[in-house]
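As a warm-up, study this chain.
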Amino acid sequence: MEIAEELSKYNQKQVKFILSLLQADNISKSAKISGISEMTAHKWLKNGLKDEINKLRKIYIEDNLKRLEFASIKATDVLIDILEDENCPKSVKLNTSKAILDYTLKIREQTQIIERLEGIEKRIEDRTN
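Now compare it with the structure written out below.
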């Protein structure tokens, strides 16, 4: 689901408030920017807008993570091109190799941590059922 689709449910002032709050995370400033009182802002948040903002924040983060994942493919290709370039200085190739190894180790560590956490969660779930 896209942010624009979610925002289509709201009026112009609410959209301004939501977008401002997503960026600044400051109710007073966001209310002022959107042309509403702080009391109205708190009322909207109390009446469900807070949940909507949290939902939109998650969508925004997921969209950006997807973009970063795609960019990481391009970045990896660039690093590999540097390693394979015969005209590239050895010092640059050494730094590139270090970067590749560092990133690979970090990804492997994170993958292992996620797998371990999933295993722990499954055991806890099995015990509670």
